[in-house]
Amino acid sequence: MAMGKDKAKLYLICGKIASGKSTLAKKLADENSAILLEQDKWLATLYPEEIVTIEDYIKSFKRLSAVIGPHVIEILKQNISVVLDFPGNTLKIRSWMKNLADQAHCPVELHFLDVSDEVCLKRLQLRNESNLHEYKTNEDEFFQISKYFEAPSKDEGVELIIYKLDGGSTRI
Q1: Is 60 left (phi over 0), alpha (psi -120 to 50) or beta?
Q2: Which of 19, 84, 89, 134 could pair with 40 as two cysteines, CB 3.0-4.6 Å apart?
Q3: In 3D, which of 162, 55, 166, 58 has the Cα closest to residue 119?
Q4: Close Cβ partners of 26 (under 8 Å, ≥ 6 residues apart)
Q5: What are 141-164's pLDDT values in tens digits?
Q6: Domain boundaries in the chain?
Q7: Which are the contacts of 74, defined by CB distance < 8 A and separation ≥ 6?
Q8: For residues 169 and 46, what is the distance between their CA atoms, to the nearest angstrom?
C-alpha cells in the first residue's frame, strides 16, 4: 500500500457509461497498490433489483456515499491510496469526492476517459451481451443519463489526466 514517505492519493474516474472507467480503475489500483472501491458492486449487493430509474440510483448513491465517504477519509488518513470506481460525471459528485481527499489532506488525481458516444454505445452493447456487468443499460438510458454528464476542467483544483481513444493521455 502507499505507505511510508509516499503520501496516499485519491484516484477518481470520470467518463460516460461504457467508456472504460472500471477497467481503468482496476489498472490504477494495481499500479498504485491502492484499495479499489467499486460503486456498482456495492449498489448491486446492497440494493439488488431496487435500482430501476435514475431516481432510484440517486437515492441509493446518497445512502452509499454517506457510508463510503467517512470510510475513504479514514483509509486515506492511514496513508493508503484509494481508487474510487464511482462515476465522477458531474461537478457536484466530483466536488464531494475532492472534499474527501481535502479532509484527509491528500492529493487527488482525476482520470477522464474522453470517449465518443458512438464508441461507448458499441462497448455498451458488448457489455450487455456478456452479462458480466451488474447493470444493463439500453441506448435510450445511455442518452438520458449522458444529459447530466459534465466534462471536468483544469479549474476543479485536482490533477487532471485526460485519456483519448488512441491510448494517449494528457496531464493538466
Answers
A1: alpha
A2: 134
A3: 166
A4: 36, 85
A5: 889 989 999 999 989 999 999 998
A6: 10-171
A7: none
A8: 35
Instruction: Give the residues across from 10 on adjacent strands.
Output: 82, 108
pTM of the model: 0.87
The residue whose grid cell reads 491510496 is: 81
Closest CA to 137 of 74, 52, 33, 22: 52
- Say how far apart CA 108 and CA 119 lie, in whole Å: 28
> In the predicted model, what is the mean pLDDT of the chain?
89
Q: What is the DSSP string of 44-87?
A: HHHSTTT--SHHHHHHHHHHHHHHHHHHHHHHHHTT--EEEEEE
122: its cell numbers = 458499441
Measured between its terminal Cα atoms, the distance across the chain in Å is: 26
CA distance 115 to 53: 24
- For 122-125, the CB contacts below 8 A with 24+ separation are 123/18, 123/19, 123/20, 124/17, 124/18
The pLDDT value recorded for residue 166 is 60
Q: Which residue has the cell 430509474?
A: 53
The predicted-structure confidence for 8-40, as pLDDT tens digits, reads as follows 999 999 999 899 999 999 999 999 999 999 998
